[in-house]
Amino acid sequence: MQYHQNGFRTGDPRIEPALAERHIDKGVVDVLIVGCGPAGLTLATQLSAFPDIITRIVDRKSGPLQVGQADGIACRSMEMFEAFGFAEKVAREAYWVNETTFWRPVEGHGDIVRADRIQDVEDGLSEFPHTILSQARVHDFYLETMRNSASRLVPDYDRKLVDLTITDDPHHPVTATLEQLRDGEEPAKEQVKARYVVGCDGAHSAVRHLLGYDLQGEAARQLWGVMDVLAVTDFPDIRLKCALQSASAGSLLIIPREGGFMVRLYIELDELVGDERASDRNVSEQVLIEKAQSILRPYTLSVKEVAWWSAYEIGQRICDSFDDVPEAEKQTRSPRIFIAGDACHTHSPKAGQGMNVSMADTFNLGWKLASVVRGHAQPKLLQTYSSERQAKARELIDFDKDMARLFSTRQETSVAAEFQRYFAKHARYTAGVETRYDPSIITGSGQYQDLAQGFQTGMRFHSAPVIRLADAKPVHLAHTIKADGRWRLFAFAGEGDAGEPGGAISGLMEFLLNNPVSPLRRPETENEDVEAFLDVRAVFQQHHRTLSLTYMPELLLPETGRYGLIDYEKIFCPVVKNDHDIFDLRSINRRSGALVIVRPDQYVAHVLPLDATHELSEFFLGFA
Amino acid sequence: MQYHQNGFRTGDPRIEPALAERHIDKGVVDVLIVGCGPAGLTLATQLSAFPDIITRIVDRKSGPLQVGQADGIACRSMEMFEAFGFAEKVAREAYWVNETTFWRPVEGHGDIVRADRIQDVEDGLSEFPHTILSQARVHDFYLETMRNSASRLVPDYDRKLVDLTITDDPHHPVTATLEQLRDGEEPAKEQVKARYVVGCDGAHSAVRHLLGYDLQGEAARQLWGVMDVLAVTDFPDIRLKCALQSASAGSLLIIPREGGFMVRLYIELDELVGDERASDRNVSEQVLIEKAQSILRPYTLSVKEVAWWSAYEIGQRICDSFDDVPEAEKQTRSPRIFIAGDACHTHSPKAGQGMNVSMADTFNLGWKLASVVRGHAQPKLLQTYSSERQAKARELIDFDKDMARLFSTRQETSVAAEFQRYFAKHARYTAGVETRYDPSIITGSGQYQDLAQGFQTGMRFHSAPVIRLADAKPVHLAHTIKADGRWRLFAFAGEGDAGEPGGAISGLMEFLLNNPVSPLRRPETENEDVEAFLDVRAVFQQHHRTLSLTYMPELLLPETGRYGLIDYEKIFCPVVKNDHDIFDLRSINRRSGALVIVRPDQYVAHVLPLDATHELSEFFLGFA
Questions:
Q1: pLDDT digit string (tens) for A77-105?
Q2: What is the pLDDT of chain A when averaged over all its residues?
Q3: Neighboring chain A residues of B471 at a CB cutoff of 8 Å
Q4: Residue B168 DSSP code
């Protein structure tokens, strides 16, 4: 954390100074977010980092979520939480999924036995664990971060979206009509003019309905129950994630929950017939408990309290587009209205992906909206949201169908074994780190990928430990990437380069600082911090005790803030203990070094040679 | 963190449910704490964990500390913060002292050069870093923890202690008279009857004055200045802890501060002559800046803002006793009034010990007071506070004198080198982990020390990583020790023991649960949790994938809370990757195993054979 750069300030550094009193007209906003679920709150928290953007977030509900719903948090989401500053709060409070066990019937007599046990996340996949925590607590951390931002953003509850129209207002072309729900009174109507509207309003999205879009796909007919319980059992793996397939009573997935006592059970129920809906089956707590008991036999399960329960059908459905621009008009206009999360894709909860993918949607959209609203990027950047995220949602649905099919198939040893193999193989996928965006205006083709094989173009920037030169602190390199909307350049020095004049690092920094075509030389950086658009850091190969600060290029020891204080957190060295050298871990070409361009959402945009200043300029000119 | 054991509860689990509305008479309390510094807040936070204890904490000041004063946080204090639940908040916000450098003049021309560089904390000394953070923020974390406790304890500011008398009230024998300070009005007098009063009211302690005690020792005559600055410099080690000794301009200690920009400078000034006081010298910001500039030459220092500054004399002074019982009366009565922190010992700030030792004082006293007030221990336990902490304060003063002498000695290469050796050698001491309490009613003699050489009797329980059996989570064993006033038994199993009936672990657990002389069988555990006094855990030698939960003794899978839910967090296995096996790291006898008794303040009280049930009983009968 860096603070005090503009003068010493008492109190909690995570609470940004509030802006000087400003009157915000809530009827005219840059971005209107509809819905306070994981997608909406991720977006609102991202936008709250920019007090020059007027954001409003509304929800039909009358207050924050208290119980139930999603709970799985993939490693990748933890990485994103780190960028928002609350990963360690989640890690402290959550259950950690360390291992998964698989139980199957013994052939012959049918009692379940533990068939296998695997590590849930392979070593080195992420510096964060796979965790389980109530969605309500994740919401709380977002709400706290928004509230502590310079924008002091808080949601407006009890607001229902009833209409959206596009007007010819050149600045705020979308007019949203909201109804303010009031106890025992007629709802009050309110109009909000917005530059952009984002529907994060769930499976029954009003924004999607108003766009006239449908979710495409089949409603599967398999009924499942889910419940969070406090229970006493002699089943030995009750504190491990377990997939159980009984001989004749069906399947059960056990997800231990935070706090050491609660556990979530996903319970297979019957197939629905014809037009039947989940609600037709009269599923009750008692039905779910008895079913779980029969699957767990010969172990006992005595449920003491049901904290939450639900029954649902598995259905995989998706929208063709996640924004308001029809295919035919993509060349002529940029989107104004977006949908994200459950509003545009639904799937079964058992792979633990729902909340994660929804948050990833708006983490993708957030920086793009901020860049365009602030004039740091061209509006066409916004088209990449739908193209990138719709493709990922489609992949998820395919994954989920396979998974659900395997899970629901009548138990046979061969299928169970297949499920188990599939499950293990796709651990990376469910960890959220397999997402790879296709080449586009913001993602390179991978032409120079061999310079840094461990930073795959289009995939998340895979962190590794390094030592910060100035204070010898062990840090994770990717944790320098805050959710502040900035692009990053990580310059990995070639062998022997110590930043001295004449070397490749020095040459690159000189180009970046002074060349007219440098991506740092931008209109918006004229009157503010030179790195307002692009944050530059370097990693050298030398041991931190042999590398000297003294001859480093100016851009790696930049002056910052009102006093011109030096920022000492730009230069890093490898961790030499324990074989943790980042050049080895990420297969960086030691001879030539490499330049890695990272998007504000932590995805690798490009890998270039250190001297490829032309390609570097061209890349940013493509959209910024 | 364990929660939900008495039923699912929404919201932040760190905020304890408030007690049902109770009327607290602030005029009649169990413990009155005078002073809201580190000693007072550590004690108040400890006592706030027990809602059955009525605690009041008052301060002359009108609100929480905002700036300045202490900033060094030793590893040992971080371990204590972990027990209070906020170590990770400090770690996130603080500067980490990773390395220390030493600068001395080049013989001949006199410019300073870096003479050496050492790792600040040796590998494996603690799982926490040595950190630097404003005392004000440490106070904030304590205040937050108190406020979130079931007691909802908050300080009463603007209260000045003016009198203390001992009455013959059998229950609340101390009467304190407070003046409530009010703007422009006569102070209002208030009487508070207390069972115990603790003076944490600093070097000018009113409690100490009212006890008639003096600080003994010499006021040293060396004047020092200290300032927190935002500055621009070309001195390359400005973000490292540095000890500089210039050829003729004196000495300087650089302590980088949290946030990446601020730095604290300790600057040697002149010796005081005769009756002269620090205030006679007209030290100013400007004097300190110029002096620092001359010591740093040939490097430049341009100070942009001084956040705080002060000038002080080094003085090492101490009280003979830290409680109100004269030596002659120790056999006949137990203490009622205590003093802690600067109220009973003062020393120079440069070893970074002041805040740490003050907090350690009341972390030692807190659980003892709680035990006696709650009837879990005999009042004579309270005598061990003064005997244990006075001895440690005396050691600190000796250490500080040596350190100050070396620091202030005119620079000669030989002395500088001696300082450097001394500094390195005493890194463990300044990390706070060398404290060793003498044998007493609560600390054994070390008779069976060879069973676990890595858990030295009288010293802090040195944590090591383990795997929790039930959920395969990697955890630190000492992090199971919360600041809840409970004693701990860690049973390390012998080779081959898997907890099965007939084994040593099973025998010990059977004794603890059922034998009439077990320390678990106590009046206060009749109607509450069997482990209200003593928390029992076991560490086995097997890999966590081979050890079975199924045959574990009842006490290692105890029923807890209103539902009798099973506590799965009692059983641990070694970390087999990376040579981190706790049996090796702490030299535990693999053949026989060992039983380690740990005090509520995390100090090792005793090491015993697993079958030494007689000694175990006798030990607790000695005071409880």
A1: 999 999 999 999 999 999 999 999 999 99
A2: 91
A3: 95-96, 98, 239-240, 256
A4: S
Q: Mean pLDDT check: name the lowest of A52-66, A512-526, B282-296.
A: A512-526
Please report residues of A whose CB lies closer than 8 A to that of B578.
Answer: 578
Q: A259 contacts in B (CB within 8 Å)?
A: 1-5, 13
Q: Other CB atoms closer than 10 Å to residue B117's CB: what's the count?
A: 14
Say which residue, B463 or A106, is predicted with more confidence. B463
Q: Could A92 and B88 be called an inter-chain contact, meaning their C-beta atoms sit closer than 8 Å? A: yes
Rounded distance, CA B18 to CA B5, Å? 16
- Residue B229 in this model has a pLDDT that exceeds 90: yes
Contact B98 A231 (CB under 8 A): no
Which chain A positions have a beta carbon within 8 Å of B474's beta carbon?
98
Q: Which of A1, A8, A98 sits opposite B262 (nearest CB)?
A: A8
Cβ distance B473 to A98 less than 8 Å, yes or no, reads: yes
d(CA A471, CA A486): 24
Question: Whose structure tokens read 């062990």?
Answer: A474
Give me the count of residues in chain B.
624
Query: Is B10 close to A67, i.e. CB distance below 8 A?
Result: yes
Task: Please give the model's pTM, rounded to 2 decimal places.
Answer: 0.94
Judge: A99–B1 Cβ closer than 8 Å, yes or no.
no
Q: State yes or no: pLDDT of A418 exceeds 80.
A: no
Q: Kindly tell me if the per-residue pLDDT of A527 is higher than 70.
A: no
Q: Which of B8, B257, B556 to mutate to test the interface with A (most CBs of A within 10 A)?
A: B8
Instruction: Provide the b/e sequence for B140-178 (b: ≥16 CB within 10 Å).
Output: bbbbbbbebbebebebebbbbbeebeeeeeeebbbbbeb
Nearest by CB to B240, which of A88, A136, A471?
A471
- Taking the CA of residue A568 and the nearest CA in chain B, the distance in Å comes to 7
Condensed to tens digits (0 to 9), the pLDDT of residues A147-158 reads 999 899 999 999
Nearest Cβ partner for A565 among B256, B304, B561: B304
β-bridge pairing B95-97 and B99-105 = unpaired
- pLDDT at residue B529, as a whole number: 75
* Torsion-angle region of B547 (φ positive above 0: left; ψ -120 to 50: alpha; else: beta): beta
Q: Specify the pLDDT at position A407.
A: 65
Alpha-helix residue ranges (DSSP H) falling in A326-412: 354-373, 383-408
Locate A180 and state its tokens: 């303010």
Distance CA B270, CA B504 (A): 65
Contact (CB<8Å) A259/B472: no
Copy the structure tokens of residue A150.
Answer: 């310079």
Pairing of strands B28-34, B559-560: unpaired
Please report the pLDDT score of residue B527 as a whole number.
65
Whether residue A451 is predicted with pLDDT greater than 60 in this model: the reply is: yes
Residues B56, B192: contact at Cβ < 8 Å?
A: yes
So what's the pLDDT on residue B409?
60
3-state DSSP call for residue B101? strand
Count of positions (residues) in chain A: 624
Closest in B260, B564, B578 to A2, CB measured: B260
Q: What per-residue string of b and e applies to B2-28 under the rule 16 or more CB within 10 Å gives b?
A: bbbbeebeeeebbebeeeeeeeeeeeb
Judged against a pLDDT cut of 70, whether residue A18 lies above it is answered with yes
Question: What is the H or E stretch that residue A169 is in?
Answer: none
Cα distance between residue A374 and residue B237, in whole Å: 38
Residue A228 to residue B8, Cβ atoms within 8 A:
yes
Strands across the sheet with A465-468, in order? A473-476, A465-468, A571-574, A534-539, A487-492, A594-598, A604-608
The one-character DSSP state at B581 is: -
pLDDT confidence of residue B106: 83
Kindly list the residues from chain B whose CB atom is less than 8 angstroms away from the CB atom of residue A474: 98
DSSP per-residue letters across A33-47: EE--SHHHHHHHHHH
